[in-house]
Write a structure and sequence with these properties.
It contains 17 helices and eleven strands. With 389 residues, it is of the alpha/beta class. The protein has two domains: 111 residues, no CATH class; 168 residues, Rossmann fold, CATH 3.40.50. Helix 1 crosses helix 5, helix 3 crosses helix 5 and helix 13 crosses helix 14. The protein starts with a helix and ends with a strand. The structure holds S-adenosylmethionine (SAM). This is 16S rRNA (Cytosine967-C5)-methyltransferase. One of its GO terms (molecular function) is RNA binding.
Length: 389
Amino acid sequence: MTPPARMAAAIEALEAVERSDAPAERVLAAWGRANRYAGSKDRAAVADRVFDCLRRRRSLAWPLRADTARAAVIGSVLAEGGDPAALFTGQGHAPAALTADEFAALAEPPPPPPDPVRLDYPDWLDAPLREGLGASFEASLLAMRTRAPVDMRVNTLRADVDAARRRLSADGVETSPGPFPELAPHCLRAAPGAPVARGRAYADGLVELQDAASQAVAAFAAARPGEAVLDFCAGGGGKTLALAADMGGPAAPGRLIAHDAAPRRMADLPARLARAGARADLVAPERLAALGGRCDLVFVDAPCSGSGAWRRDPAAKWRLTPEKLARLCALQADVLEAARACLRRGGRLVYATCSVLPQENAGRFTGDARRVLLPADGADGFYAALAQF
Ligand SMILES: C[S@@+](CC[C@H](N)C(=O)[O-])C[C@H]1O[C@@H](n2cnc3c(N)ncnc32)[C@H](O)[C@@H]1O
């Protein structure tokens, strides 16, 4: 594809993501299947531009004084120092030529943008974001406008950090220590887009892809060998695998149980456990009652807005509405109540979200100890609170 054709494709794909409620990756994959002429490099270039436009949707469109996918893509060209008129020509597969209004807008410096435009968030989230992010408001929102690095958790059931680093290097993946070694000591970080999942180290279970903050939150729970631990919202199992490693794996005493209200979300977990050399029992929702009052630790990685992970899922910030947030908060209250019923007397409950919004965090559960990581700290935003009952 020519550079102008890639621009036209980016506008089309961005519009498709914005029309859909499905994850952006899935929409882009469908776009790729429907446009077979696009080779792998074209698809990657289009996807990168779409994600960049989603992360900076409002600020990129601002110079055009328009709120359209086309304006955001033109803005992305400007932001790179390119000349939109050279790409938006209307020739061949290029997007339509710049209009007189667009030329006029580009000729005038735009007025200074208000914060929600400059920092790329919906107006209605202004107050909760200021409250949740505090002094790191600007730095955290700026951090979430950039591409995420690739973070991995070294699986201590298979290797130590040095051995994993050597194996990754042999795969062509160079790493550095993660951003907060004291909180997530087994984290390694590679550049955005590093092909970790295509390497042997990953296939052999030496590393799992997991953001540093997510690792820090799992470590905060301090799961120990010998305990009965329930991962109440296990989903794909990222935290389950981290808890399993902290519990010492299959050779150590104790029992790890993975549960999710939507069991199909755990479909890949048995294969992931096998690759990691770990063990957990998967429990269906209808069998949960049997765990009542029995667990030493219940880990609740609650369904949430994902507002701390907008770098990775930037479509989510534009899809969130006050109504959706209210529904999530009500669900979090229900999940907490059900999770607590599984604790033995004196057991600990950890409530975690990858959100930075106060109504999902301290407004929901404060506990006796907290671990709060904000995007300005160098990874996703995460909240965790621990209480002993
Ligand atoms: C943040 S995700 C979990 C991510 C996962 N722990 C990980 O580390 O990959 C939240 C999960 O909560 C599940 N969930 C939603 N409502 C639930 C409920 N009432 N009880 C248990 N799980 C629930 C969702 O299906 C979803 O998989």
